[in-house]
Amino acid sequence: MPQILSGRLIAGTEAYAIVVARFNDLVTQRLLDGALDTLRRHGVAEESITVAWVPGSFEIPLAAEALAKTHKFGAVICLGAVIQGQTTHHEYINHQVAAGIMRLNHEYGIPVSFGVLTCQTMEQALDRAGGKAGNKGHEAALAAIEMVQLLATITPGQV
Ligand code: INI
Q1: The dihedral of CA 59, 23, 146, 50: what is its sign?
Q2: Which atom of ligand 1 has the smallest separation from the CA of 93?
Q3: Is residue 75 classed as helix, strand or coil in its secondary structure?
Q4: Which residue, by CA, sits nearest to atom 14 of ligand 1?
Q5: How far does the centroid of ligand 1 lie from the alpha carbon of residue 89, in Å?
Q6: For the chain, which domains are there?
Q7: Is the pTM of this model over 0.90?
Q8: Quick check: CB of 88 below 6 Å from ligand 1?
């Protein structure tokens, strides 16, 4: 029989940090609401949640790193909404934010989840922030909980 490891979706006592970008806050406030609702529903205590607002998605990795560095959090959830404009500006933001967030996962060994929308239109973004395509804030929070629980099962001597 193989040993099957998977993270339960019941939060433990770990604290969670959320970094959320103010740019396009019509969308990001909804992502934040989705993430908070998910954390609460899965058992994270109110006092175990910290929310940090940053100006735009480009600033997310720096704030997430500062939070990870405190070693107070089991995971950091990153939320933003990059919407394509008339130039290629969004491409630079998207790539750097995704790479920055991935780097933090490896550097700090905690889940730093990617709830940053990369959309062509505001309509697409709203669809993914509680509209007809779900809520990516919810997904990012759920992924963070699952990964915290999974990593807790992967300890030397247990696997
Ligand atoms: N930031 C976003 O979060 N979403 C966007 O769509 C966006 N656009 O399109 O410009 C955006 N720009 C701001 C950027 O994240 C930084 O805050 C800014 O460049 C200052 O560093």
Answers
A1: positive
A2: 15
A3: strand
A4: 56
A5: 8
A6: 18-150 (3.40.50.960)
A7: yes
A8: no
DSSP letters for 80-93: EEEE--SSSHHHHH
The amino acid occupying position 86 is: Q
Half-sphere exposure for 22 (CA within 13 Å, toward CB): 4
Q: Decide: 24 in ligand 1 pocket, CB within 6 A.
A: yes
Cα-Cα-Cα-Cα dihedral of 67, 70, 72, 73, to 10°? 30
Is ligand 1 within 6 A of the CB of residue 117?
no
Nearest residue to 48 via CA among 7, 11, 9, 10: 11
Distance 116 CA to ligand 1 centre (A): 12
Q: What amino acid positions are annotated as catalytic residues? A: 89
Is 23 close to ligand 1, i.e. is its CB under 6 Å away? yes
Q: pLDDT digit string (tens) for 12-61?
A: 999 999 999 999 999 999 999 999 999 999 999 999 999 999 999 999 99
